[in-house]
Records
---
Amino acid sequence: MAKFTLFTGPVRSGKSTALLRWIENGSDCKGFICPDVDGKRMLYSITDQITNPFEVDAGGPEKIIQIGRFSFLQSTFTLARKILQEGCVLQAGTFIIDEVGWMELKGEGFEPELSKFIDAVRHHSQNLNVFMVVRESLIDEVIGHYHLSEVDVIDVRTTSLP
């Protein structure tokens, strides 16, 4: 059975940076991390070790999704959903999802693949650790929305990663 851990903290508290440091130390991980690089959100595919642009300036030639004052590439959301699809068959190791937020709770962003991933690994994975980055203000909503009955919560400010 998969083990779910919510990795949390305030906005811009270093959650993605802590995860990047953790995987650099040789952790057996798959999934994706969305760090800020030069003030713009990127999507780092852990398996491929490729950093992809995610947040962009509005008005470019590619399709974008507007979230408040931020513009994100639709193609990068598609890439993240593909990574989630590929993760559905994992049996062991660690899978990181950075981050689960309001868009996913509304059925957008990484959905519907995020829900499919959670259901698949919940029922079929033997020893998979799933780390989901969640803002501290959304912990209860995420736990309820995804029916995470047994979940650990790690706060970036007070606890280091295992």
---
Amino acid sequence: MLYNGELFRKILGSTKALAVLLKPDGTIGDINSEAAALLGHTVDEIVGQNWFELVIPPRFFDELTFVFDNMMLGNLTSFDLYNSPVLTKDGIERIGSWSYIRLTDGEDNGVGVLVSGVDITEHIRADEELSSAVESSKFLLDQITTQLQAILVAVGQIDHSIDDPAQKTAIDIILKSVEACTRIIRDAQDEDSE
């Protein structure tokens, strides 16, 4: 993408997405206020800092500097929708969905990289919490089903030793209710597995 400094400053200032302009040496040439705020910095204190050393967690450093170096060499023009964390000033990881786009001059020389993205941290956390809740529900339903089966067995054994019609009716109601509960749970489990 042909680099136009004035246009990029307008884009950086007008977008709600996270946007960072990296120089060929990996330092931050510009950053919008949304990205700086997410990282816990002011724009002034973060511009000029090395992006990779400042915000990339060590376990992603080699991979992302490799991508960046290859973009500067012209081997890659973009690296889209890469989910990875960045470190805030306080050392907290925030997960972003990032795109890296190579910027060039009129002669196709790499002059920088535009890093843009969105913070998906809360979305990821909500997905993890939902998955955990679903697993807990499945476990509880299995436990309830097991207990209902035990009730069916016990009540079935009692049913054979009772002659009183009123007690037989009560046991029949219990058996039908337990069977209905078991069916409801199985139907719920079948819907979850679909």
---
Amino acid sequence: MARARFGEFNIPDGVQQANEGNGERVRTPPPRLSIELVPSSSWYTNVRSEVSKAAWDSLRHACYRNAGHRCEICGGRGPQWPVECHELWEYDDAQGIQRLTGLTALCPECHRVKHFGLARVKGEQEQAGRWLMQVNGWTRREVHEYVQDAFRVWEQRSARAWKVDISWLDHREARPAPAE
């Protein structure tokens, strides 16, 4: 029986599945909802910390409008506020560059999963795991293996300092806030 291997290091467009019978690896589609653990050297460095409050408000409200005030993963809406703005990053593991590639609107439940490490610190990992299981149609075991793999990648990435590239903002209405 094939065992799903999720979160392999530096696989940008999907995950791999190991076929235990012959050792081959085949591409499988990426999960609908994934965990995105930010390397520890990049904690507290985000768009909100790099632009003015007015620019951040403009960016996030545009993100909400573009998504029709619905989660871009599950289509849902939160009970207190419909959606939250989440930053999309890609990682160049060879060069150590964390590059902003966009913003997406997520319901609070999907956003909690994206920041699974924070959910764990807050004691909300069970809730996040159940949502990850529900949205992706996974078993508890698949979620467990996926979370373990995501944290392995996080440990590898956190072993180095990352350069954060927010040049995606250069063609938007937001500009980095002047240094104080």
---
Amino acid sequence: MLKLLINAESRKLRWFLINQRGELMSVVKKILIPALFILAISACNKDTYTPKPYGYFRIDFPEKDYQEFQMEAPFTFEQAVYTKAVPDQSARAEPYWYNIQIPANNATIHLSYKKVNNNLHLLTEDSRELAYKHSIKASSIAERVYTNESKNVYGTTYNIKGNAASPFQFHLTDSTNHFIKGSFYINEHPNYDSLQPVIEFIEEDILHLIETFSWK
């Protein structure tokens, strides 16, 4: 009789545990499945951020075309049609000092004329020193000699790379009477990467100015 009672109680206990486990699994399913579903939906809807490369605005440039410099001066050259020549109005300006303005690019080419009076060496050294003052910010300065014997024009150009305030300078002379210095400035915070297209575009016009330059 005792053995029968023990067996009966064992079966009751086993069934009780089975029922408890079933109820526990039911509760887990009710909580876990909705939670997993919500997580899956969230993962699908979550925006994935992909860093984009740093870029700059595209700049549209006008077509290249040139006209003769029309101001009174002992020299002449061809300037781009989208530039404007105006007299230098600064306090230290001297006769035949002009600014070639490029309004679309907020840039200026400053032209400073000097009469040679047994001081050609001083004028050329002053021009060179002015160019190399930008070496602090420049990554490199390419210095090139320019010669045009048919027009009696000789000089040096300074192509200044990096975040310098003036990316291009030059001087021209006939070695005896005339001397002119040119300095190109963009009226923006120097940033060579963003300004490089503008610099290269205007440098072409400066080289054209030099190649067409002649004395009167």
